[in-house]
Amino acid sequence: ETGVTQSPTHLIKTRGQQVTLRCSSQSGHNTVSWYQQALGQGPQFIFQYYREEENGRGNFPPRFSGLQFPNYSSELNVNALELDDSALYLCASSPTAMNTEAFFGQGTRLTVV
Amino acid sequence: KNEVEQSPQNLTAQEGEFITINCSYSVGISALHWLQQHPGGGIVSLFMLSSGKKKHGRLIATINIQEKHSSLHITASHPRDSAVYICAVTAFQGAQKLVFGQGTRLTINP
């Protein structure tokens, strides 16, 4: 039990739609990072939030956006869904921005049809 | 070339065998992580290393900072060890993000 909860666990969306994925971190964890894991691949960094501000971004287009809230929850929003967005989306929280210790949620599996 | 490379990509062994999974990286790091991922997706952190060696039960992780190499060993392997094992590094690249290897799929047969 990592104390990091993601919802929903599974989701099916149609191409062109928008989706919001949610992550609830451990209390006191000021940093949350989001990763995309395509089938058979390692996770890829999408972005990181530290104290409600974006603190770094990977090679993902602007239609991937996020929010972090004071209650240690966060959201990943994806607009104009494409078939290639089908993946497992993982959030990981850390007590500091140094990410030297990361706690992962169980992931949300998104399927775009 | 990926910044974090694991080998082998797939490994099948018999119960009781000694298992070694290797990880090499090419970036400056502040820590290296070994993670376990079971079917269904959830990731569990096994070890976080910045130097030397750590042991937890039947699992041992080592890191050689000079050679930029780490190994994960499993002694007396068991079918419940079957999972994907992922090496990830905390990289000095702006935000302290994790950079992941592609994972090693381990299957332990009874």
Write the topology of this structure.
The complex is a heterodimer of chains A (113) and B (110).
Chain A: E1 5-7, E2 10-13, E3 19-24, E4 31-37, E5 44-50, E6 53-57, E7 64-68, E8 73-78, E9 87-94, E10 103-104, E11 108-112
Parallel strand pairs in A: 2-11
Antiparallel strand pairs in A: 1-3, 3-8, 4-5, 4-9, 5-6, 7-8, 9-10, 9-11
Chain B: E1 4-7, E2 10-14, E3 19-25, E4 29-37, E5 43-49, E6 52-56, E7 59-64, E8 69-74, E9 83-91, E10 98-100, E11 104-109
Parallel strand pairs in B: 2-11
Antiparallel strand pairs in B: 1-3, 3-8, 4-5, 4-9, 6-7, 7-8, 9-10, 9-11
Q: Please, could you describe this protein's structure?
A:
The complex is a heterodimer of chains A (113) and B (110). Chain A is mainly beta and 113 residues long. Chain A is built from no helices and 11 strands. In chain A, strands 2, 4, 5, 6, 9, 10 and 11 form a 7-stranded mixed sheet that branches. In chain A, strand 9 (87-94) and strand 10 form a beta hairpin. The radius of gyration of chain A is 13 Å and the shape is globular. In chain A, 38% of the residues are buried. The mean pLDDT of chain A is 92. Chain B is mainly beta. Chain B has no helices and 11 strands. In chain B, strands 2, 4, 5, 9, 10 and 11 form a 6-stranded mixed sheet that branches. In chain B, a hairpin with a 4-residue loop joins strand 7 (59-64) and strand 8. Chain B starts with a strand and ends with a strand. The model of chain B has no long low-confidence stretch (mean pLDDT 92). Classes of the chains: A mainly beta (113), B mainly beta (110). The A-B interface holds A 2, 33, 35, 37, 40-45, 48, 50, 55-58, 88, 90, 92, 97-107, 109 and B 4, 30-31, 33, 35, 40-45, 48, 50, 86, 88, 90, 94-103.
